[in-house]
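Bench notes, afternoon.
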Amino acid sequence: MVERELDDGVRIAQLLASELTGRAIPPFDDVAVTDADSDVEPTPEGARAYDVTHDGERVATVYVMPERARLELFVGLEAAKRAADDVGLRARPRASTPPALVVFVENGAHAKRVLDVFEAALVAADRSGVDTDAAAGDE
């Protein structure tokens, strides 16, 4: 039995990256981790660790904090929020350009739950025909 939960932001982000890229089924078959900072040091406000792309377009950014990770999703926000609520993850919208959904990954066990959130976001974006490039704020 595990005595303690994984609560190191860098390790949680690494586990999440493995989960996202280790699936060969849609919609994860076109997911990649890009622009990773292999020397990222966690900060209280969150240091950028990597981007997540789908079909070559940025759909999320992952940040590391000392005891957790935080991701910001840029597509399928309403569906992603419902999925986060369904799996018990803390999530809140961020009023910004582009709009985002901030999802907190408090421990390693939550990394698997985030897959449901990503799947909901990607499926919703595909269904709505969202231009993920425009949604992510890239020109």
